[in-house]
């Protein structure tokens, strides 16, 4: 079950929540459940309407997250669908009205609920709100190591994680698994969904690098990685690329899971296969798919989402990677 924080009401409903299938058909007046996540920097808000459960997120990285959702879609990576609800549209007003009204009703006599209400009101106080499909799963950070190892083995999980790593390389998204970045990563941004038997990527954002030495260095690392993955392609099973072997070692630390022990040594080759297939797909995107991405950034720029530099920066900086 998604990690939820206290909102003064019974939150067990989330454990059995059914995802809404159509994010463009939300009847806000039927909203009957609201909960906040207890993880993430600002986190998300879970909502249930007549058509099912979905996630809303008010954040400063709207353009980066919208663009990333589009990129994940064209690359065929499993990630929640996303859409924007923008001020001063009718739906933006409905969202604000019904979410706030619901929380107010619940929190009249409960100080904990009042705290959640203030948090939600702060997050919603933005001109653009993201709506995501709900993933009925659990963050990898919350899974017992043996269970996680078992699940990854049986679900094409390592290949899926490799695919997500490739997405992150293209986006310069360091907030998941340490690959080209010197951080510990954050495996909470990978979820495992039992009913779909799949690993799902959440919370991806494109982080553009201003032109100059920093961007050139990054692009050089990406090129090196692509060469490394391709060079070792014929011998993947016996000897995965050093970067991939290192990735597996770091994943072992980040998710406390001994992948190789659980997967008879095939974890690294599978991860490499997943990465390589997505990097190849990105390099050969059809002009129609590239058009979809550039249209998305144009739209975001026109809506002045996240500031012109962010949306425009995503387009400019990714151009050498998505030709
Ligand atoms: N689409 C989703 N479906 C289910 N749970 C989600 C979804 N998006 C986020 N969550 C839950 O909310 C937490 C915080 O969301 P996230 O987007 O990672 O926020 P932040 O940007 O603040 O890190 C996640 O770790 C996950 O538990
Ligand atoms: Mg997160």
Summarize the main sheet: 5 strands, antiparallel
Average pLDDT, rounded to a whole number, is 84
CATH class group of the largest domain: Mainly Alpha
The tally of strands reads 8
CATH superfamily of the largest domain: Phosphatidylinositol 3-/4-kinase, catalytic domain
Inertia-based shape = globular
The helix-and-strand class reads: alpha+beta
- The largest beta-sheet arranges its strands as 1-2-3-5-4
- Uncertain runs are 308-313
Radius of gyration: 20 Å
Quickly count the helices: 11
Order of helices and strands: EEEHEHHEEHHEEHHHHHH
Q: Percent helix among the residues?
A: 40-55%
Q: Which band does the percent of strand residues land in?
A: 5-15%
Termini gap: 39 Å
Bound molecules: adenosine-5'-diphosphate, magnesium ion
Count of structural domains: 2
CATH topology of the largest domain: Phosphatidylinositol 3-kinase Catalytic Subunit, Chain A, Domain 5
Going by CATH, the architecture of the largest domain would be Orthogonal Bundle
Protein described:
The protein is of the alpha+beta class and 323 residues long. The chain folds into two domains: 12-57 and 88-126, no CATH class; 138-283, Orthogonal Bundle (Phosphatidylinositol 3-kinase Catalytic Subunit, Chain A, Domain 5), CATH 1.10.1070. It is 46% helix and 11% strand. It contains eleven helices and eight strands. It has helices at residues 62-75, 90-106, 111-124, 145-154, 157-171, 213-231, 242-254, 259-262, 267-283, 287-302, 308-318, and strands at 33-36, 45-49, 52-57, 82-86, 128-133, 138-139, 190-193, 198-201. The strands form two sheets. The chain has a five-stranded antiparallel sheet, with helices on both faces. Strands 6-7-8 form a three-stranded antiparallel sheet. A hairpin with an 8-residue loop joins strand 1 and strand 2. Helix 7 (242-254) packs across helix 9 (267-283). The longest helix is centred in the last third of the chain and has 19 residues, at 213-231. It is globular. Residues 308-313 have low confidence and may be disordered. It binds adenosine-5'-diphosphate and magnesium ion. The site of magnesium ion has 4 residues, from loops.
């Amino acid at each position: 079950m998604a990690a939820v924080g206290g909102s003064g009401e019974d939150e067990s409903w989330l454990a059995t929540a059914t995802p809404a299938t159509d994010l463009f058909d939300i009847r806000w007046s039927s909203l009957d459940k609201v909960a906040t996540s207890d993880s993430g920097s600002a986190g998300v808000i879970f909502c249930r309407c007549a058509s099912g459960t979905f996630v809303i997120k008010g954040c400063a990285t709207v353009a980066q997250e919208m663009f990333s959702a589009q990129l994940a879609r064209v690359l065929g990576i499993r990630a929640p669908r996303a859409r924007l609800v923008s001020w001063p549209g009718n739906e933006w007003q409905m969202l604000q009205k019904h979410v706030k009204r619901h929380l107010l009703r619940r929190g009249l006599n409960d100080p904990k609920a009042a705290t959640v209400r203030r948090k939600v009101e702060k997050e919603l106080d933005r001109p653009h709100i993201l709506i995501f499909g709900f993933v009925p799963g659990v963050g990898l950070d919350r899974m017992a190591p043996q269970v996680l190892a078992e699940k990854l083995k049986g679900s094409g999980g390592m290949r899926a994680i490799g695919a997500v790593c490739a997405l992150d390389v293209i986006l310069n998204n360091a907030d998941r698994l340490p690959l080209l970045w010197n951080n510990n990563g954050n495996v909470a941004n990978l979820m495992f969904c039992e009913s779909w038997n799949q690993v799902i990527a959440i919370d991806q954002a494109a982080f553009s690098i201003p032109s100059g030495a920093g961007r050139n260095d990054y692009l050089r690392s990406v090129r090196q990685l692509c060469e490394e993955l391709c060079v070792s392609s014929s011998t993947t099973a016996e000897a995965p690329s050093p970067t991939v072997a290192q990735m597996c070692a770091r994943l072992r630390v980040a998710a406390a899971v001994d992948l190789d022990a659980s997967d008879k040594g095939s974890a690294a080759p599978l991860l490499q296969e997943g990465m390589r297939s997505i990097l190849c797909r990105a390099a050969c995107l059809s002009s129609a798919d590239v058009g979809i991405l550039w249209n998305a950034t144009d739209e975001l720029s026109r809506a002045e989402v996240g500031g012109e530099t962010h949306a425009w920066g995503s387009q400019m900086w990714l151009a050498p990677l998505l030709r």
